[in-house]
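Record type: monomer structure entry
Structure origin: computed from sequence
Chain ID: A
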Amino acid sequence: MPRSTNALIIDGYVDEPACLGVSPYVSPYIREVAGVLIGHGYAPRYVTIDQVRADPALATSPGRGDLVVMIAGLTVPGAYIGGRPATLTEIQQIGILLRQPTTAIGGPIAFGYAPGGGKKAIRQAIAGFDVTLSGSPAVALDSWLLGGEPAGAGDYSLTDPWAAAGAGIIGGHPAFPYVICELETATGCSRATVGGCSFCTEPFYGLPRYRSIEGIAEEVAALYAAGARHFRLGRQPDLLAYKSGGGEFPVPRPEALAELFSAVRENAPDLKTLHIDNINPGTIARHEDAARAALEVIVAGHTPGDTASFGMETADPAVVAANNLKAMPDDVFRAIEVVNEVGGKRTRGIPELLPGLNFIVGLAGETPATFDANEAFLRRVLDAGLLVRRVNIRQVMPFEGTKAYTENTLGKHDARFRSFKEWTRKEFDEPMLRRVFPVGTVLSEVVVEVPGKPSFGRQMGSYPILVGIPLELPARAVIDTVVVDWGMRSVTALPSPVEVNTLPAAALRWIPGVGKKRAATIAARRPFGSVEEFREVAGETGIEGVMRF
């Protein structure tokens, strides 16, 4: 009996220090694996773990073919809106369910698994799967299909053609065309020779290997032809180091970044989103002039509303030293200032590029005073009038092979960790959101991800703000909105333009200054013929410029 030419790719979602592949993001691993399968004569079909949860038959139906490849694994778990990564239990259940076809599992799951931050990741065989793909999933899969070992390091001479060949797989994503294609520019860590940060898995990939602009351009062209319009230069530990020389903190090369952004735009001329991810604050602090010039190139080439993710980890110098971290608190503060100076200007009301801060709890050397230092640092940022897009706080998930696996303070300061997180949400996040997204800020093309009343959605991009809309809207609805209020990690917004005469009465109260009682009066006095008539009842609101009568 001839083997089936069908194959199935299950996206269990990945999240690493330098790669995000949780819906609506599609990781490079998925597209490269699709390219390998196509090259071996298969017709791959693509489903996400969310789809499999809703309908297990998607993974077990005869149409899946003789080969199933699953990609999964988290090394920096977070909070997710668009999708929920596969748990180890689910991965094993899927492997056992599949039984008959040949099955392979790959991705960061090969490094180990933990149910969440604050737990050690345990490396183990994944029950139910015939083989674990070690190293680069695509290279390992190709080797295995050729009869070799299921292992192999990343090699852009191999993966670049596969990435382009597999670009069309994105059309199978349930959120398509509202997917963000994570573009790889490099793997590895420039600080690998000195061990890297104590907790990080990126040094497992060795010293940096930079992908060619030609390879990136060809993949972007293929993705664009497949319908992609949203991109992020996200699969790298420090975009400022792209194509730079050696050393622990390479000097940025603005001309290389200019060529990169130009190539992406030339091959995706009508793109809607072009954002970035990781920026090393230590690079900015050590090479301020070159870094400033590189950031200016990014702002000239990207789309507004972008976030430069800073792996700060802690504001305690003792913890920085004990864990070989990238930058001291004063270095990070200066990096925040530089990004604000270059990227703080607003385009259509939205800041061009802002820093995002990552804190990690449970590192070696941490004491109760560490949390005092963290709070003092954030207070300093607020007092200086600076803008920060978001603050992520997570507990370390140590992996075997990292220093943090044996040297950490897990579980020692749980109460102080919780109080620090609560303090940040109340005392820092909400005031900062008011500063970054003032009343009247228009957030265009918000994609509804959680339907209901209220509905929740986000713009496409890097760390987009969660938008609560006090209306019942269907999933995948796309609307323009205007900010009217703030929570600790989200904003409340109304559809823009604000149709005062038809907006449901329950939503009228969210117009700034209106409230429940005045909303009832407004509803009773409708329709209004002009802003002036509306002001007589509602007073000044700050969003008159986006009202329609």
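Annotation 1: Residues 414-436 form the longest helix (23 residues).
Annotation 2: The radius of gyration is 24 Å.
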